[in-house]
Amino acid sequence: MSGGTKSPAIERNLVLIGGRGCGKSSVSKRLARLNRNFMLFSLDALIRYEAMAMTIPEIVEREGWSGFREREFQVVRRISAFPSGAVVDCGGGVVVDLDPAGEEVFSNRKVDALRRNGLVVYLRRDPEVLMKKVSGDPNRPALSDHRSFLQLMERRDPWYVEAADLVFDAEGIPKVEIAAEILSWFLEHQGDARATATTSRPASKS
């Protein structure tokens, strides 16, 4: 064994949420590299594994978004059983379910599960920037037949905030810096009974 610096112990899970293209996947990978005690999980990858490697568009085409959200909930339940050590890269819709009319509503069941053993960080970015990043991506099926991406992001923003222990305003910040700041915050608050929700850079969440 070399005499390298030992990574600090991890006592909770760390969950990243936010809109499509906000940087959850790349930041979660950096977090796992910064602390080797983390196990990295991608909800979308696990959903695809459970669906016999079907792509996300294929799942949505066959089962609709309601079927996808149910698959997502089952994966969230399994991940949330880890008492600690998971860094979880969530899909953009992890905070929503669908009502009988097909409209998105806040998902208490998924958010409660993620928060049971985890601290949740919302990577907030300008929706216009996100739209440009994900436009035309064939691996990201349309989220709605009657609402635009910007309308959906506006609708989801308060739900992301409600779910989060930390709202990190990530616009214009290098991902390596985002990961370092989130890890520092996480290590400071992981022992709390429930971290007080805050907005990074820094200000209180109203």
Overview of the molecule:
This protein is an alpha/beta fold and 206 residues long. The chain has a single domain (13-204), classed as P-loop containing nucleotide triphosphate hydrolases (Rossmann fold, 3-Layer(aba) Sandwich). It has helices at 24-34, 43-50, 56-80, 108-116, 127-134, 149-163, 175-189; strands at residues 13-17, 39-42, 86-89, 96-98, 104-106, 118-124, 166-169, 198-199, 203-204. It starts with 12 loop residues before the first strand and ends with a strand. Residues 202-206 have low confidence and may be disordered.
Summary of the model, kept short:
With 206 residues, the protein is an alpha/beta fold.
What proportion of the residues form beta strands (DSSP E)? Answer: 15-25%
Unreliable runs? 202-206
CATH architecture descriptor: 3-Layer(aba) Sandwich
CATH topology: Rossmann fold
SSE string, helices as H and strands as E: EHEHHEEEHEHHEHEE
Number of strands: 9
Largest sheet: 7 strands, mixed
- Measured between the Cα atoms of the first and last residue, the distance is 48 Å
The Cα radius of gyration reads: 17 Å
CATH class: Alpha Beta
The main sheet orders its strands as 2-3-1-6-7-8-9
Helix fraction bin: 40-55%
Continuous helix count? 7
Tally of individual domains: 1
Structural category:
alpha/beta
Give the overall form.
Answer: globular
Classified in CATH, the superfamily is: P-loop containing nucleotide triphosphate hydrolases
Summarize model confidence as the mean pLDDT: 91
